[in-house]
């Protein structure tokens, strides 16, 4: 159960990363673009943390 929760959280962060990346690319306002860049960086960090935890528990190959 915990493995599935971590995997789903990582997948959600990946989707958010894609959305923020698109927003950065298409944003015409510099201030809003900067906010999206910050959110993108934070999302990447959370995604990395989740991946590391899955890897630490040897759950990466089981989910892929």
Descriptive key words:
mainly alpha
Number of E strands: 0
Helix fraction by DSSP (H/I, runs of at least 4): over 70%
Regarding quaternary structure, what we see is: single chain
Average of the residue pLDDT scores: 92
Q: Number of helix segments?
A: 3
Q: Quote the beta fraction.
A: under 5%
Low-confidence stretches: none
Structural class: mainly alpha
Q: How many independent structural domains?
A: 1
Instruction: Return Rg in Å.
Output: 14 Å
What's the SSE pattern?
HHH
**Biggest sheet, in brief?**
none
Measure the end-to-end span: 16 Å
Shape: elongated
Could you explain the architecture of this structure?
With 64 residues, this protein is mostly helical. It has one domain. It is built from 3 helices and no strands. The longest helix has 27 residues. The radius of gyration is 14 Å and the shape is elongated. The mean pLDDT is 92.
């Amino acid at each position: 159960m915990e493995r599935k929760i971590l995997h789903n959280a990582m997948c959600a962060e990946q989707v958010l990363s894609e959305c923020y990346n698109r927003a950065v690319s298409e944003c015409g306002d510099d201030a809003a673009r900067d906010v999206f860049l910050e959110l993108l960086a934070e999302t990447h960090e959370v995604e990395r943390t989740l991946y590391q935890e899955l890897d630490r528990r040897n759950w990466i190959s089981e989910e892929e």
